[in-house]
Amino acid sequence: MVGHSGARAQEGAEALALAEAALASNPPDLQQALREADNAIDADRRLWPAHLIRGLALGRMGRGTEALESFLRATSLSPGQPAAHRAVAIAAFNEGRYELAFENLVQAVQAGDEQAAGMIDAMTASAPPPPDLADQLEAARIFLEPIDTEMYRGVIDVSELGGVSRRDPRLLNQPSASENALDFYEMSRQMRQALVTSREFGLVPVPDMARYSMVIEIHDVGGGVRVGGDLGATPTRGGPQSVKGYVKIRDLRTNDWVYSRLLDLSNMSSIADLHADMARHVEFLAVWLADENR
Fold it and tell me: Helix, strand, or coil here: 203?
């Protein structure tokens, strides 16, 4: 039997398929595409491709501002997704928002989008690019692995996070079972967002494109269970939403671990706190990278 969350996810996938078909039809049925994209979003609010399809339909209707909003929502849900960043770059450029356009053009190019790379000359000929554009395009490429819970046993069943394997990349696009569950999806999303907005790193979708690979290891949740410890271990930080672990970096050229820093989150349930924590870790990582490049 499929649970409620699974049924809603299936409804979202079916509506998304209908939206894509309507947009691809000849001639495109833009109203149908928009309607089905909205249905997909209603069923699964984290389904970023539905926001992309919605934006494409709105753009073809001449509703550029609304299209840009939908594209931005897609990049918020799946930071580093090249097609979504390219769509934002085009829509923002058409709306005269050149700073936003170049930011997302860079992010799409960093993620390996060939169409975005082909847009650089045209955009720089029409609007002033950022002065460090070349440096951004050459930023160190990094791949974010799925959250690693190998060291954390017995408290959270990862099957609740969308019913996929811990190491399945699709984990990034799956909702948690409830709002009260530890939301490793949100942790991953916030780290991806921090990497995407960093000028020192370029987030890539596959490890073959990267120089570095980042792993977030979860060792302890709420201070209750720790490898090699007891269930009744005294927590060092309070609250059921606290998390301990490590942020680690592997150099993919040598396969050596080259960086490790303690992860100590006091409030996983606060998106604002989680965003600040992930941004802080990327700042630490940028300092390390600058030292490595000296």
Answer: strand
- pLDDT tens sequence across 101-123: 999 999 999 999 999 999 999 99
Rounded to whole angstroms, what are the CA distances from 11 to 45, 49, 239?
12, 14, 35
Domain boundaries defined on the chain: 4-133, 141-292
Span 4-133: which CATH code?
1.25.40.10
CA distance 190 to 77: 9
Helix ranges, the chain (H): 4-24, 30-43, 48-60, 64-77, 82-94, 98-110, 114-117, 120-126, 133-137, 184-197, 271-292
pLDDT at 182 over 70: no
Instruction: Assign 94 a pLDDT band (cuts: 50, 70, 90).
Output: very high
Which residues is 142 bridged to in the sheet? 203, 212
